[in-house]
Amino acid sequence: MNAQTLCGVRILGTGSAAPEGRLTNADFEKMLDTSDEWIVQRTGIRERRVLDLDKGNGLTLAHEALQNAIDAAGIQGSEIDLVICATVTSVMTCPSTAARVAAEVGATGAAAFDVGAACSGFVYAINLADSIVRAGRAKTVAVIGVDAMTSIIDYADRTCSILFGDAAGAVILRADPNPELGCIYQHMGADGSGWHALYIPRYEKDIPACDSENKTRLGCLRMNGKEVFKFAVTKFREVIEDALAKTNLQPADISQFVCHQSNIRIIDAARERIGLDPSQVYVNIDKYGNSSAGSVPLCLDQLWRAGKITPGKPFVLVAFGGGLTWASSVWRI
Ligand code: UT7
User: Fold this and answer.
1) What is the DSSP letter of 208?
2) Nearest atom, ligand 1, residue 118 CA
3) Which uninterrupted H or E stretch holds 327?
4) Rounded to whole angstroms, how far apart are CA atoms 151 and 128?
5) Do 296 and 258 touch, CB atoms closer than 8 A?
């Protein structure tokens, strides 16, 4: 599509997918030296969804979420001209998950690529999609966030393994003549100096000296929980305050803060410091755990289908994660 005057962006539909399989805190009590009480108090998680890797993977979850979004949008896959997929668990590094999912839904010929910004990935991807549509370079864009986290977890690591689950979410965006619609403010950032707080090494030589005591298996996610926790609590608050200040909005003007589900204590700390009402901050971590790039779009789809995202008030997407990365996105529908 040729560049044209700046337009707005409409959300046509949303979708999500999570596997049937559940891993409960009681299951962890049987596998590891842990307890339901510790996990609930320290994280807010009660169960997570787990793929049966003999039957599915991130690709199948992404496909299901995108098909649900296409059906909700009432369009054909062939109308999509760009697919952006946020993931750190692509089945293969090449080809991208985006290219394969595009083919599955009949969007053959659409541009397709993956974004790697860990748990911030979906917010990065939707920010990028909005900017591309506004610039007139694409008309109908599918944005997916998916992670099959349980495929990269070492289940002997009790601090990390209890946090993560598998899920995907997707959104269909379309150019709209009303420039007021779509992302009215976005911010993305990264600080690579903190990379070793959350990473997936391929080889022994990838492991920095500061993490040499960590016994997590190669190829699995390694995390310095305390460091990520400190970063997240500060960044969540900063990112939300920045988004409100830059848009001249008050907390009460926002319908929903759709936050990355990493730890209930991280979400609550930001909510309390900023003075947000609990009804404005959606939480599903108790049932899904942290699904990385799947977490924000899964929440968005659940809120969208429940009618909690309305034209009257903007909503805000907020995430942070490996990189270290962070991102916000304020939307008017
Ligand atoms: O998307 C971003 C992904 N990552 C995150 O958001 C993680 C952010 N960090 C966190 O959520 C928290 O740091 C954790 C939930 C990972 C850990 O909670 P914490 O309150 O920071 O615990 P801790 O690491 O300070 O550990 C406290 C104790 C330790 O025992 P000692 O050394 O005090 O005897 C741990 O060994 O809790 C122990 N512990 C556990 N005990 C029971 C660690 N994991 C477990 C466990 N069950 N699963």
Assistant:
1) -
2) 1
3) strand 325-332
4) 27
5) yes
63 is known as an active-site residue = no
Tell the residue nearest (CA) to atom 45 of ligand 1: 159
Does the pLDDT value for residue 5 go beyond 80? no
- With bands split at pLDDT 50, 70 and 90, how would you rate the model's confidence at 312? confident
Q: What angle do helix axes 58-73 and 97-104 make, rounded to 10 degrees?
A: 50
Tell me which residue has tokens 């599903």: 284
What global pTM score does this model have?
Answer: 0.96
Place of tokens 């990264």: 190
Contact 161, 221 (CB under 8 A): no
187 is catalytic: no
* CA of 262 relative to ligand 1 center, distance in Å: 12
Q: Judging by DSSP bridges, how do beta strands 315-321 and 222-223 pair with one another?
A: unpaired
Task: Please state whether the peptide bond connecting residue 177 to the residue before it is cis, i.e. omega within 30 degrees of 0.
Answer: no
Counting Cα atoms < 13 Å in the Cβ hemisphere of 40 gives: 10
Place of tokens 């793929």: 51
Q: Are residues 251 and 313 in contact, defined by beta-carbon separation less than 8 angstroms?
A: no
Query: What structural domains and CATH numbers belong to the chain?
Result: 8-180 (3.40.47.10), 183-332 (3.40.47.10)
Nearest protein CA to atom 35 of ligand 1, as residue = 159
Cβ atoms < 10 Å from Cβ of 211: 16
Ligand 1 centre from 226 Cα, in Å?
A: 7
Which pLDDT value is given to residue 113?
98
Question: How much of the chain exceeds pLDDT 90, in percent?
Answer: 96
Alpha-carbon distance of 21 to 151, in angstroms, equals 14
What's the first-to-final CA gap in the chain, in angstroms? 24
Count how many Cα atoms sit within 13 Å of the Cα of residue 187 in the half-sphere of its side chain.
19
Please answer whether residues 286 and 307 qualify as being in contact, where contact means their C-beta atoms are separated by less than 8 angstroms.
no
Annotated catalytic residue, options 25, 224, 263, 290: 290
Per-residue pLDDT reduced to its tens digit, 277-295: 999 999 999 999 999 999 9
By CB atoms closer than 10 A (0-12, 13-18, 19+), residue 48 is buried
